[in-house]
Amino acid sequence: MSSTSSRMLEVAAQQFAEKGYSGTSMRSIATATGTTQAAIYHHFPNKEALYLSVLSLQLKEKTGAALEGLDQIKDPEQCLRELIFRLVRLAEEDEQFRQLYFRELLEGNEERLATLAENVFGGLLDSVGGLLNKLAPRFDLNLLLLSVAGLVCHHVEARKISPFMPGSEPDHQELDTLSEHITKLLLYGVRGA
To answer: Where is the HTH tetR-type domain (predicted)?
Structure first.
C-alpha cells in the first residue's frame, strides 16, 4: 500500500469515526489529506470502498494485535482472562476503534456489518475459538464471542456513569477491576451451565 493511500485511510478512519459514514464526504477527506477527490478515486473507486477498506484495515489490524500470542496460552481460563484484559484495553485506549464499532452496530448496513463480523469476530474465532470451546463446550461459540464483546464494550462505555451508581466504588472504573469482573462473570456463567 502506498504512503498516499495509507494517509487517505488514516484520515478517512478519523473522519468516519467522528462523523459517521453519512457525515463524511470525499471532499473533506481530500482537503484533510491535501489531495484532490480525483486522487482519492484513483485509489478507491467510491466512498463505500474507502469505508470498507477503513473498516477492514482498522478493525482487523487492531483486533489482530490484541489477539497476538493468545493461541500459545494452553490454559483456557488464563486465555479468557488475557483476552478480556486485552479487549478492555483496546476498547478503552482506542476511541476511534470504539466509535467505528458502535457506529456500524447502530447504522445496521449489512455489507459493513459483514465486514465488521469478518474482521473482528473472525479473528477472535481463529485465535481463541478452540480454547474457548474447551472452556465452554455447551455454549455456541458465536454467541459466547458476542457476549464477550457486549460485556467489554458496555463496561468500558459505562465507566462514564459508574461514579453516579449507588454503592459505586472508585476501583469500579479501573480497567483491571473491569477485566477481572468480566472474566469472573463469564467463567462462573459457563461453569454453571
So the answer is: 2-62
Average pLDDT, integer, range 173-179: 93
List, in order of start, the domains of the chain with CATH numbers: 1-44 (1.10.10.60), 56-192 (1.10.357)
Cβ contact 44:105 at 8 Å: no
Phi, psi of 143 (to 5 degrees): -70, -35
Cβ–Cβ < 8 Å for 148, 83:
yes
Query: How far is it, in rounded angstroms, from Cα 99 to Cα 157?
Result: 11
Per-residue H/E/C for 87-105: HHHHHHHCHHHHHHHHHHH
Residue 107's CB is within 10 A of a number of other CB atoms, namely: 12
Amino acid making up residue 50? L
Convert the pLDDT of each residue in 28-51 to its tens digit: 999 999 999 999 999 999 999 999
Rounded to whole angstroms, the Cα distance separating 70 from 73 reads 5
Secondary structure of residue 136 in the 3-state scheme = coil
Backbone angles phi, psi at 40, to 5 degrees: -65, -45
Per residue in 103-125, pLDDT tens? 888 888 898 888 888 877 787 77
